[in-house]
Amino acid sequence: MTESAEVAVLFARADSIYKTLPECDVYDIERDARTYDGDLPVVAHPPCRAWGRLRAFAKPRPDERNLGRLAVALVREFGGVLEHPAGSLLWPAQRIPYPGAGRDAWGGWTLAAPQKWWGHKAEKATWFYIVGQEPAGIPDLPIVLGEAAYVVQSRKRHDYRPHITKAEREATPPDLARWLVEVARRCVTDKRRAA
Fold first, then answer.
1. Does residue 2 lie within any of the structural domains?
2. Which residues contact 16 (CB under 8 A, 6 or more apart)?
3. Please, which of 6, 134, 179, 193 could form a disulfide with 23 given CB 3.0 to 4.6 Å?
4. How far apart are CA 76 and CA 98, in angstroms?
5. Does 16 reside within a domain?
């Protein structure tokens, strides 16, 4: 862990933007988020292919679904934010409240927002599970109106916008990464309050 780290980023890509942010202690596939044993609030990006709407086409590793469960547990324990595609089956599996459905036993709640607001080329509808901060206490949302120039994958025959690449689907826009780090930095759970 770096001395200046304020937030742990779990399940990051090897080429993650988070590695350029000095306040982040980053766990990618090499460092293995399953070994995280700190007490920092977290930004969690667990693999989504076993939980998302395209899961029928995915070939996740046998242990991959458990990484989502671990990410939920760590966000609940240390506070922070978990990012996953809108409609992720991780929500009902872990009894995470749906957007607008109130709080869970850990005080967690879900924000629904498109990554387009933070500069993604596609709409990329996303859910953010936040534990340790009230909705009024998160950083401002950079709402952007209008249609995205690209699509993640379109089922509509009349939608001829180009698809984004797999790398673009997995990468976190720099502005979103900074926003998520600030959300996590503001999160405080009972366990962190006691420490």
1. no
2. 9, 26, 28, 172, 177
3. 6
4. 16
5. yes
